[in-house]
Design goal:
single chain, 318 residues, alpha/beta, Rossmann fold, Aminopeptidase, 2 domains, 8 helices, 13 strands, 28% helix
């Protein structure tokens, strides 16, 4: 867990940072330690904090507890130094006109005297490679999918009925792993949403996936879901999708969403109509675009185009 937030102001005089004290108190109230470092070279400071002095022999590794910290830097050179030490960092712009460039930073914060704790925790989780927990329902934890989920996903898809109306996983597990790692980086990290894993609270088992995606040729975000055969007819699809739709409206700001269901999948159509979706018609959608194998996002196998007919439904969230 995130233990401490360290604000590193490279050249800002300490007296100009007095308004940061309210932010420090806010973080403390949210069970996060916080510290401001100002007007001193970060290399010297952290050499001392690690129990060593500059130029005093071989460099010692930084204490492991620093991996529980998030360092916000207003200077790109300080940020690069800490990244090279293997620590978790974000850029920080106190003055929007400063012109600082943080090309190596995944996140850049402004208005640093008015940050919320959840944003800082999520930034640290991204840097530490920890999946975000999106939300919880009475029976489910809905979180980002990880490579450790693959065994459970292959088990779910081993039942032939799972691919009657949707595509399965890649036959080659290494292809699926490459695809999932690209998905984590390009979708979760960039879009901030995606299709997530559904974890049953009582057992800790992965029972399916649900969430939002963006489909080429369509303007609205798309709701998708599946529940493994062992957990079907227990209300999990309704429970998860209801919560996810609410999250889409309140957190992601979606005002309208769509769903695509392959013709013949009456069970999914019934569920969507129960959730308030309305039928809009039939569309033709390209299927199996990767041709059964995956090398990387930019390397797609050239295969004959295959299309299927899908029912298009949508729902207003406002």
């Amino acid at each position: 867990m995130l233990r401490k937030v360290v604000f590193i102001f490279h050249s800002t005089p300490l007296e100009e940072l007095e308004n940061m004290q309210e932010e420090i108190r806010y973080l403390n109230d949210n069970h996060l330690e916080a510290e401001i470092i100002s007007c001193q070279r970060i290399q010297d400071i952290y050499a001392l904090m690690a129990g060593q002095t500059p130029g005093a022999g071989p460099k010692k590794p930084l204490p492991e507890q620093f991996k529980e910290d998030l360092f916000l830097c207003d200077d790109p050179s300080d940020l690069s130094f800490l990244q090279n030490e293997g620590l978790y960092t974000c850029g920080m712009i106190k003055d929007a006109a400063s012109g600082s460039s943080f090309k190596n930073s995944r996140y850049i914060f402004s208005d640093v005297d008015d940050l919320d704790a959840d944003s800082l925790i999520k930034a640290w989780q991204r840097e530490a490679g920890i999946p975000w927990t999106i939300l919880e329902t009475d029976r489910l934890i809905i979180r980002e999918t990880t490579p450790e989920d693959l065994d459970s996903l292959y088990y779910i898809y081993s039942d032939p009925s799972m691919t009657r109306y949707m595509e399965g996983l890649f036959p080659n597990r290494e292809d699926e792993l490459r695809y999932l790692n690209d998905y984590i980086e390009k979708v979760y990290h960039f879009m901030g949403f995606g299709v997530w894993s559904l974890i049953e609270k009582s057992t800790g088992e992965l029972i399916g996936r649900a969430g939002f995606s963006s489909r080429n040729g369509f303007d609205k975000p798309e709701l998708g879901f599946f529940i493994g055969v062992d957990w079907q007819r227990k209300g999990y699809a309704t429970e998860s999708c209801s919560a996810i739709l609410d999250y889409g409206r309140k957190v992601l700001g979606f005002d309208k969403v769509q769903a695509l269901v392959k013709e013949g999948n009456d069970v999914s159509v019934h569920l969507l109509e129960k959730l308030g979706f309305k039928m809009q018609g039939v569309v033709s959608i390209e299927e199996d675009i990767y041709g059964g194998s995956y090398k990387n996002q930019d390397q797609v196998s050239i295969v004959p185009e295959k299309k299927g007919n899908y029912l298009l439904l949508d729902k207003n969230l406002l």
